[in-house]
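Q: Please design a sequence for this.
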């Protein structure tokens, strides 16, 4: 299965999503994914010591999002009524962006579903 194919469940509830390696290399995306390469590398770096990023910010498409949750395997950041969710599997990071009118909990649940599918397939 291609990286992009894994993102299908997230596409229905988010503005855009992507998969990056744990080093920040872009593997594929769906929808309106606006993060650039340096932003994606930063997402990967967050997982090296996530607790140190709590209360800090990340950028997505040049816009600043405050990190309001930083766990070993999941990071959530928000700017007004939109947000970014990052979740790590064994080898990659699944990322999703939601906008006003989309439900963060639904996006988070779908990201988790994709991560579990990846883990089940050895990723």
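A: Design:
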């Amino acid at each position: 299965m291609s990286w992009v194919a894994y993102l299908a469940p997230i596409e229905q509830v988010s503005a855009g999503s992507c998969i990056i390696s744990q080093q920040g290399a872009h593997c594929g995306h769906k929808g309106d994914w606006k993060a650039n390469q340096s932003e994606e590398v930063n997402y990967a770096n967050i997982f090296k010591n996530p607790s140190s990023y709590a209360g800090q910010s990340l950028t997505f498409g040049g816009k600043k999002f405050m990190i309001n949750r930083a766990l070993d395997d999941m990071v959530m950041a928000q700017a007004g009524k939109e947000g970014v969710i990052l979740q790590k599997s064994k080898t990659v990071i699944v990322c999703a962006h939601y906008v006003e009118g989309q439900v963060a909990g639904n996006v988070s649940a779908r990201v988790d579903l994709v991560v579990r599918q990846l883990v089940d397939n050895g990723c």
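Q: Thanks. Anything notable?
A: The mean pLDDT is 97. Residues 19 and 70 are 18 Å apart (CA to CA).
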